[in-house]
Design goal:
This protein is mainly α. The protein contains three helices and no strands.
Amino acid sequence: MVGENGKKKRFDKEFKLSAVKMVTEGGHRASEVARGLGIHPNMLYSWKRKYADSGDKAFVARGI
């Protein structure tokens, strides 16, 4: 996903977990959550798969 300045948008671990949990625990539809957060639904589905595979360890910061 590309931001307004032409650079790739980055989302922190807390943002991703919150978005995924809105779907998995909150009972919201992925498409509605994605629209509300301004992200593409496919990105949310990808995060959901990673979370299902690795749980809270799914979104490790790079370069640390």
